[in-house]
Amino acid sequence: MASPLASPSRHHSIFLMIMRRLRAPLILLVVIISSSVLGLTLIPGPEIDGQARYLSFFHAFYFISYTATTIGFGEIPYSFSDQQRLWVMFCIYLSVIGWAYTIGTVFALLADRNLQQAIAMLRFSRAVRRLADPFYLVCGYGETGRLICQALDQRGFRMVVIEVDETRAGEVDLYSYTADVPTLTADAGNPDTLQSAGLTHPNCIGVIALADSDAANLAISISARLLAPRLPVLARAATRETAANMASFGTAHIINPFERFSHSLGLALHAPAAWHLLTWLTGLPGSAIKRHRTPPHGHWILCGHGRFGRLMLDAMDMESIPVTIIDHHPQSNIDHLWIQGDATGPAALEAAGINDAAGLVACTNSDIDNLSIAVTARMLNKNTFIIIRQNHYSNRALFTAFESDITVIPSEIIAHECLAILSTPLLAPFLEVIRQRDEEWCNWLLQRMTRRMGWTVPEIWSARINFTQAPALYRRLMRGETIALDQILHSHANRYEYLACEALYLSRDNDDALTIPAAATPIHPGDELLLAGHPGARAAFELNIGNEHALNYILTGDELRGSWLWEKFGRH
Known about the structure:
Blueprint: H1 8-21, H2 23-42, E1 47-48, E2 51-52, H3 57-67, H4 82-110, H5 113-129, E3 135-139, H6 143-154, E4 158-163, H7 166-170, E5 183-185, H8 191-196, E6 204-209, H9 214-227, E7 233-236, H10 240-248, E8 253-255, H11 257-270, H12 272-281, E9 300-303, H13 307-318, E10 323-327, E11 337-340, H14 346-351, E12 359-362, H15 367-380, E13 385-389, H16 396-402, E14 406-408, H17 410-423, H18 427-436, H19 439-453, E15 459-464, H20 471-478, E16 501-507, E17 513-515, E18 528-533, H21 535-546, H22 548-556, H23 564-570
Parallel strand pairs: 3-4, 3-6, 4-5, 6-7, 7-8, 9-10, 9-12, 10-11, 12-13, 13-14
Antiparallel strand pairs: 1-2, 15-18, 16-17, 16-18
Helix pairs in contact: 1-5, 2-3, 2-4, 6-17, 11-12, 11-13, 11-17, 12-19, 21-22
């Protein structure tokens, strides 16, 4: 389906808009030039051989034409008479007025916001139409959108950005992305805008709704579901009601950062090893993860009972943890001890029992208040486990300097979740398996993975055993060979060494799935593997399953004879 902004009618509308604005000055110029030319042809010139000479239309038009840009190069084809010179003087001043009016109108037209928006949309839709690579449509370029765009760019994906705020949209050009990022300042909730941004483009591979309002994200989800049902949609939702509405329209992935963290906290309270494992697997690849102190059981203090505070209270109630709430507006319908006051001061914290508190959550919507609460609590009880909410990513330097036990950054939670889903869809079912496994199994897997790879977040990737992604392995399997998982995890540089990666999950077309598949598990055509390892291990693994020479060496120890170039350099 063609975008309305990309159609020829849009080009014509911009042209007609310009012509309508310039209609009056153009008519004035035509009248001035016509009158000037006509006057020169009618006024008699000097007498030559006793006969008055008149200018032809061609000479009169030629003289008026170069007079429009300069005083003139001379009187042609002969010297003018006094009457002609008087008329020319009148025409010069008249044309100056006409050109000044026309040029002023042109400048006013160029500064017109409607025309600028129309031209920007035309350029934007043209840039989107020319995209030949797969791209994601990112709706909203706030803190979360910027983190996701940077991560997608590092993974080699293209992006198209829609942002309603002009200042934020302008920030796209400030970051050095690998390729140009088409950006449009508009409301992403408008279906026409989404179509212009490539929602129905054949190379669009996903929609990420990160607008500031739930209403806009809901509108984006509905438009994507109706106009491009094949596309996966990742949408941010601030409330459970919006999430339920999105789910009713079949939105693939709905992310509420506060609800995600409340579930994570609940998991940390009753299954610390599973929590550490999830934190390690879903971090940004290459970043170092410090093993957090496990949230302790005991009396907790909740500072702020807003949207985030209520979710945190629900998570603690599920674990039967006693909680004291400090808030300016206490509620009588909640069976918890309330302290009405300001938690930034020591009086309210001491009244809530900070001296004996096992943990504290600073979860107001003000970063300064949250930091003040945390600093005061740490001064009163240095052993208290502190969870602090960071509302704005730009304040990361302040929160890093404080060194809380856990810092809740909504933009990072959403970014991590989106990247995990987009880059490796097989990761989502594996994480769900971890949440359902017992603590002993999670601790075993955590120790196994971190002992081999350390606490640096590994690169997570998936590989499907088909002709496109694994041609060498696929051809051997289709010939009836039996190849075990352990065999393709060896190094093609030394077949007696293993690659620095682990197979986490194996999914098959018959809906069969294996978690941490055994080394002897036979590989079948069509299998999809989820792997985690060092960055260099991914390239080595892809060479193993894609290159016939490398695969034959790790399976048999023999090097295949190939081209003269392969034989010349293969020995080295």
